[in-house]
Recover the amino acids of this structure.
């Protein structure tokens, strides 16, 4: 079987089939008859039929076992998936990553994309907050100015009234002199 | 030994996803 | 001999390839033995029908053992070959292949230092955001205070307005001028008075 080309499932079936054929071929009737020589001499047909039954029972039992293993292991699906993954990686020459055996080390790569995402979010959020705060700062500064202005206005008005107060004093003085 | 290997590799397959799910919750909470 | 646990393959298949093949080996071996015994039983039962055959069951047992030993040897050889091919070419993951579930390791292979650096950056960003949030809070507080202050100042200005309006309503357009006028008038009046007094004294 050209092992690198054939899809895994095909390879698997072919290899098991070849194993079975060779195993059954090695249990030849000559060999079987030779081992049961005395019985073979007495009953050659029975010997042949027992031998035939032996081989066919062995073949069906092994084949059933293989089918069961394929089914329980979900091998057909897994082999097809693995073939596709291997096909997709055929351009990669370097040895691929493998678990290091240190969980926290291997976990890092899993968490990095989420941390990068968080970093991006925070950066964007921070920029937005800065813009927002700049706007607020402008309003605060404008507010401070407005208050300053109002305070000056009030100062002027109260100075004016103080001046009036003085005038009033003078008037009283002026009126007070007989 | 075999069980250990299967158990370890099952964890390798499942735990990162589970941990990542909790990690995402943590990040979301930090955002809030 | 160091055992290759084939853990990456196990991660993919969900079982260790060696165990899978061990199970197949055990099953095949059991079948070989069981079916061998069945064949022997059939022969012995056949012999029961041939009492003068002079073939003893131990003879049959010898035959069984020699056939089984031969088959077992062949089985071991063939199974060994099959196992090595299956482990190396079918149930194995070539070393350049990365399982899709592990793609993250291809994209984000961070060293411990890089990871910690990344965490520091995120921490710093979080602090920056908190600082901005605190600043925002302070700005909002000041804006609230400004609103209240401005309202107070506006109230004071309105009070001044109401004073002036009160004057206007009573014919005083401008207090300063009016007071100046009154003061002038008052001082004129008082100087007139003085004049009058002096005249009346001189007339007196």
């Amino acid at each position: 079987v050209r092992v690198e080309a054939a899809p895994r499932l095909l390879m698997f079936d072919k290899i098991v089939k070849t194993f079975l054929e060779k195993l059954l071929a090695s249990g030849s009737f000559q060999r079987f008859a030779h081992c049961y020589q005395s019985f073979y001499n007495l009953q050659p047909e029975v010997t042949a039929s027992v031998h035939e039954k032996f081989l066919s029972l062995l073949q069906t039992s092994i084949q059933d076992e293989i089918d069961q293993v394929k089914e329980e292991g979900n091998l057909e699906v897994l082999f097809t998936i693995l073939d596709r993954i291997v096909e997709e990686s055929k351009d990669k020459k370097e040895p691929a990553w493998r678990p290091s055996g240190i969980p926290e080390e291997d976990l890092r790569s899993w968490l990095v994309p989420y941390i990068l995402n968080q970093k991006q979010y925070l950066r964007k959020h921070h920029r937005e907050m800065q813009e927002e705060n700049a706007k607020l700062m402008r309003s605060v500064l404008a507010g401070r100015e407005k208050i300053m202005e109002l305070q000056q206005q009030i100062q002027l008005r109260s100075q004016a009234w103080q001046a009036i107060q003085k005038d009033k004093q003078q008037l009283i003085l002026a009126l007070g002199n007989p | 030994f075999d069980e250990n290997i299967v158990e370890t590799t099952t964890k390798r397959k499942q735990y990162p996803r589970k941990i990542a799910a909790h990690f995402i919750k943590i990040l979301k909470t930090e955002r809030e | 001999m160091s055992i290759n646990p084939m853990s990456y393959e196990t991660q993919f298949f969900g079982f260790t390839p060696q165990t899978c093949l061990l199970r197949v080996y055990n099953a095949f071996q059991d079948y070989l033995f069981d079916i061998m015994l069945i064949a022997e039983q059939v022969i012995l039962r056949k012999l029961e029908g041939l009492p003068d055959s002079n073939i003893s069951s131990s003879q049959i047992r010898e035959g069984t053992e020699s056939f089984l030993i031969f088959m077992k040897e062949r089985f071991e050889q063939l199974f060994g070959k099959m196992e090595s091919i299956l482990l190396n070419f079918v149930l194995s993951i070539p070393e350049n292949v990365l399982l899709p579930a592990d793609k993250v390791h291809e994209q984000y292979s961070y060293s411990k230092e890089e990871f910690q650096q990344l965490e520091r950056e995120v921490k710093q960003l979080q602090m920056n955001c908190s600082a901005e949030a605190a600043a925002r809070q302070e700005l909002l507080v000041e804006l609230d205070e400004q609103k209240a202050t401005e309202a107070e100042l506006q109230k004071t200005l309105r009070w001044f307005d109401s004073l002036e309006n009160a004057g206007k309503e009573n014919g005083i357009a401008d207090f300063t001028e009016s007071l100046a006028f009154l003061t002038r008038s008052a001082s004129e009046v008082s100087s007139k008075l003085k004049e009058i007094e002096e005249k009346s004294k001189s007339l007196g």
Notes: The two ends of chain A are 140 Å apart (CA to CA).
